[in-house]
Records
---
Amino acid sequence: MNRVSKKPGFTLVEILIVVSVIGLLAVLALPGMMKARKRSMGIVILEEVRLMDAAIDEWILERRKKDGLPIVTSEVASYLKGSWRDTDLFGHSYIIGLIGSNNITIAPETKQALDGVGIDWGRF
């Protein structure tokens, strides 16, 4: 009698099934991870704007600036722990207003790019 010995291991069909299940799980998880990433980017942008707005307010009060004057970001930068950022994570420039109006605003392109991730932009 001829004995056929079976070597231990996985068959090609078993490996294909495992790979297809992993691929299916990745496809299901990817949209959620992308939305979470966008949301975290939006939160970082919003926090940066809040810090810069607070620095602008301190600068206005300390220097006794009057409404309608331009905001000098090079002077305001000294009120921040880090450096002044002219652009957000997407590369869009922040909109700097005049004293007495919205001091700093997030670019509409950034808000549009992060639409649908559940961020309340408030007055920014």
---
Amino acid sequence: MTSGGGIWDVLGIAPTDDRRAIRSAYAARLKAIDVEADPKAFIAVREAMEMALAAAERRVWHSEPDTAAKAQDDGTETLAKTRVELDDQFALERETRRLAELLDADFHPGVTEHSLVECLNRIWSNPSVHHIETGEEIEHWLAHIIADRLPRSDPLIAPALDRYGWRGHDKAVEHYGAPAAIIARADDLEALARITRPDHRYYEAFKLLERHPETVPARRRRVMERELRDVLQALRVHYPTLEWHFGESLLQAWVDDIETPRWGRPSLSVYTENAIHVADTAPDRTFSFQDRVFLLYIAGLILLLYLITKTMNS
């Protein structure tokens, strides 16, 4: 427990009976604490705030007669309101800890999308969130925990973007880049939704990348090589978080397979400057060596047929 003489030092303010000032000091101290990394500091600040509020109530009751009489008129109501506010705060802290645990794979490896969204809604429905300071604290905390727990926190991205309007607002500096990371992930998820539609031009290549290259016939890999290159390069340059969809080892196996030197075939790095967005059409390229050989082969067949026909007619 926090000692009575040190509660004001913990809160960083001079002794006061101004409950608003006490809550403001508490909110300011919370912003400077990493609750998950230093839970003892959080508990100390919390206890200091509660003791300060209690001390403020006592000072009101022992003040001058006029003030005490006035306080007595609404004392019961004030104390009841304080208890309700504290209960709401405790409930909010419980739900934020719960959400942090759900987003930790070590605690809950099989968490569902429904349980995450339900916990988030309970946080937002808490009356304390409607206070400006608490609401800003929750927004700040959510931005960081969603960004830090990607892709596990994916189900929370859409409701958070809708509630806080991070798109279209320059809050990247205010939140140290957390909303920017969330928006980037949202864009990648939109690209994932597009490319996994069966009518998308890169759908087949994308589905092939979900398999290990050794399980795909060599002929099939050669036929789809251009599309596979396009998707791999798009993931590398434009949609890096979608690599989580496959796993680092699987993508590396595909890169190694495509990068394996073959006579006349360019490496994947040749297309770095021409990397495409999966929602766009592929850029125009010059014919590859294989294309030239194939065209020469077709031209030779046509010439041979022409000579045979001319000989038979002569």
---
Amino acid sequence: MSDPNASVLDDGSFLSESTTLPELYSPSAIKGFGFLFSTLFGGVLLSMNLKRIGKEKDIPAVMAISIGYFLFTILIQMHINLKSGLSIGVNFAGALFLSTVIWDKYLGKNIGYTKRKILIPLIIGLALAALIVIGIFNSRDSLSF
């Protein structure tokens, strides 16, 4: 290794410290948000990555996949009445699909990047989840006579 400050990329090649890598949400972040919140949320993070690397033309396809899977899980839950354990498994499968297959197809398996901080998406996700919970409790209270 010629540069002691070089970083190793996924494909085993080296990157000089002077090279600027894009700051992206990692596959782990996309999988985590896709699992905890929804594949829709994971798809938004993945789309933000695409925008950062100049692949805006791929955003509609990624969002269509994310929205499609999200609607698929809602339909399954409504019509089949899934148990919560199976529902969690279906959601995890979607998050895993986004963070592996879709990541590899649109960003590339060996893309070099630095990890983008997840604090802002986490705050947004928690705020949205809180609003949904509040809405559920308020709707239950308004249905009581």
